[in-house]
Amino acid sequence: MSIVLSTCAVIITVIIVLVALEFIDTLKQIKTSASAIEKLARDANNRVAEVEPVFKIVNSISSSINNAFSSIANKLTSIFK
Fold first, then answer.
1. Helices marked H in the chain — which ranges?
2. Alpha-carbon distance 7 to 10, whole Å?
3. Euclidean distance between CA atoms 35 and 43, whole angstroms
4. What is the pTM of this model?
5. N- to C-terminal Cα separation, the chain
6. Does the CA dihedral 60-66-69-73 come out positive or negative?
């Protein structure tokens, strides 16, 4: 009876060790993936930071055009009143 219990204990221990090794390998892969994602996010952030002045210029031009059309529309409506 003790031989059967010892054998079961050894088998269970081996299974636990194998599962733990797989778990460690999975955690390493997750760490590698997370590092790659972080690198991509930083690269995307840098690209957005490089383009941000262009967005500000376009926004400024758009606001100027909008204000010009609004001013013209206001002048035209005041003429026809």
1. 2-79
2. 5
3. 12
4. 0.57
5. 108
6. negative
Handedness of CA 25, 26, 27, 29 (dihedral sign): positive
> 């081996």: which residue's tokens?
14
> How far apart, in whole angstroms, are the C-alpha atoms of residue 7 and residue 11?
6
As given in the structure block, the two tokens for residue 45 are: 């952030």
- Give the residue carrying structure tokens 């941000």: 52
Q: Is the dihedral of CA 16, 19, 21, 27 positive or negative?
A: negative
- Report residue 80: phi and psi, to 5°: -85, 0
- pLDDT by residue, tens only, the chain of 81 residues: 889 999 999 999 999 999 999 999 999 999 999 999 999 999 999 998 999 999 999 999 999 999 999 999 888 888 876
Residue type, 3: I
Give me 26's structure tokens: 């999975």
Radius of gyration over every alpha carbon of the chain, rounded to an integer in angstroms? 34
